[in-house]
Each structure stands twice: as structure tokens, then as C-alpha cells.
# Entry
Amino acid sequence: MFETRQGRSAFSSIMATLELIYHSTVREVRKGHRNAIAGLLMSMVQTVVMIGAFYFMFALIGMRSSPINDADYLLYLMSGIFLFMVHAKTMGAVAKADGPASAMMQHAPLTTFVAVASAALAALYLQLLSLFTLLFLYHAIWNPVVINDPVGAMAMLLLAWFSGIAVGLIFYAIRPWSGEASTILASVWSRANMVASGKMFLANNMPTHILVFFWWNPLFHVIDQARGAIFINYSPHYSDWRYALWVSLGLFVIGLMAENFTRRRASASWGAAR
# Structure
């Protein structure tokens, strides 16, 4: 009642929000595993298992070399799987972030923006750490890693991350209304992208009547463009990173509007019911 409120400048407010996001991100990273090394190892194991599964699957059907001339086959596999993992993990983390009716939202400084931002940054941190660690080990032990355009490849990875945020934000807005529907839809999206992302195919090598089944997916464009940046002998002709960016921006805006609509109508009793 007698508390004196002191106004803060815009710069102070921004710095306070960034500090809150930082601490929330650390909490998100440690949520699954209190030991940071254990969390990193789990992320690496998941990626290695997926790479191994696809390697042996394609070996069984006779595909033992990269469809790109003079390209490292394992690097070709990793280029698709890494971006898929970044997208899928980010989407899942954002969709499961603390919602407007969760107990954590009872703490005054915390907002849904901070919860979503910290979940997305935690996912990016773990995936980047896993990616660089695996690439370093592969480079040091197995075969030198040569990336034609590292800046372009990193830009595509960040675009895959942003598209994961955009899709996850829509499922995040749905969750307070129906947690089961949000979980099912997120799972369907992730499973569909196992094939629809085209991480095992090249757009240049696909017939037109098959390409149309993949072209709608922004992640397909991101992965194909990333391979154009990674491999000097591949120039993507049937994908466009601008399409992926505009679709992701559109989904992001829709997700923000849906989240705002949900947040204004969310009740604390929803969190108790779920």
C-alpha cells in the first residue's frame, strides 16, 4: 500500500528483461538435467542415433555415397539432420514453455514473452553446442570438415531455429485451451517433418511431380539452401530461403496474435485443471 514505485528508463527496462531471459534460459537448460554435461551428452546421443539410423537404412538400400559430387557422405547426412533437430527441438521447447496459467506466471517479473524466449534460446544453445562438438570430433578423428560458406550455413541454421519458434508459438497458444490437442499436433508436425523436410533428398534431383509434396515446407527450403552453402558442388535451383523466411514470419505473427488472445482470456484455474 505504501510501496514507492520508481520509474525506470527504457534502457533499464530492456536490460532487466534481458537479465530475466538469461536466468530463465539457464533454468530451462538445467530443467531436464541438473548436470549440464549430461544434458549435452543426451543431445549429442540423440543426434548420433539419428545419423546412425539413416546411415544404415540408406546403406541397406544401396545408397552409400553422397548424391553431391565429391561431397562427404556423413557431412551430407549431418547437414540435414542437424537442421531438422534444431527445428524440431525448438518447436517442442516453445510449445511446452510455461503458459499464461502456469504457476511460474504468478511471479511478477515473469511473462509469456520471457518464457518463450528462454525456451527458444535454451534449445538453440544445446543444439549449437551439440553440433559444434560433434563436428569437431568428426573433424579431428574421422575426416576434415570443409564448409564452403560458413556464414550462409549458419544463417540457414538460424532460419531453421526461427521457423521452429514460429510453429511452436502456434502450438503454445493452443495448449491452454487443449493441452492434448497441442501435444498431438506438435507430435504430428515433428513426425511429418521426418520425411517432409527432405533432409535425405536433394531438390535438384527430385522429379517435379514429387517436388510439389515437399515445396510447401519452409524447412525443406532451409535444408536445401544450407547444402548449397555447405557444399561447393551443389547449387540449389528449386528452393528459396526467402520463401522460408516469409512463411516463418507469417506463422510467427499468427502465433503472436493467438498467444495474445489466449493470454488475455487465460485463467489460473486452467493450470490447475491441466
